[in-house]
Structures are given as structure tokens and as C-alpha cells.
Amino acid sequence: MTAKWTFFTNHAHVLFCIADDPDITLREVAIRVEITERATQRIVAELEQSGYLRHERKGRRNHYELKYDAPLRHGIESHVAIGDILTVLGKGTAKH
Question: In the predicted model, is pLDDT for residue 55 greater than 80?
């Protein structure tokens, strides 16, 4: 039996969900990514601390804004911005 794996991490999957819908709830992200809400909260906090996104409270919900020009973290792909990946995958409206 082979292990289940994907090319993208849960961090990338969360980012993809937010790119598709900047007003998505963390509960909705958790369901789509198939992780817990707690894990989703941790990932969003890490992405925010690393400068990939920021949030703003709008009423009772958060609105997320991605930093499309932020480079990927690993040295092998650090010449690529997240907006480039989002554009290739047809995610969100990559504004870079």
C-alpha cells in the first residue's frame, strides 16, 4: 500500500483557499483542506507572521489579503513569488 501524499503542503492548500475566497471562514478552509480548525488557525497565523497574508476584521468575519510578491521560503524556489504559483494554478486573482 502506498502512502497518501500531495505535491503541496497544507500551508499551500490553505493559501489556495484564501486566494479563491478572501472572505472564507477558517471552518470552511478546514473542511476543504481536510484538517482541523485548530490546524487551520495555526497555519493562517504562521502565514501571517511570515508575511504571506494579512487579515482585517469586517463585521463578524475576517477578510484576507495575500502578499502576491512574497517569495517562496525554500532556497530552491526562493526566486518564485506566491503570486506566480497562484497564477499558474488559476487560483484567485493574482495581483502581482
Answer: yes
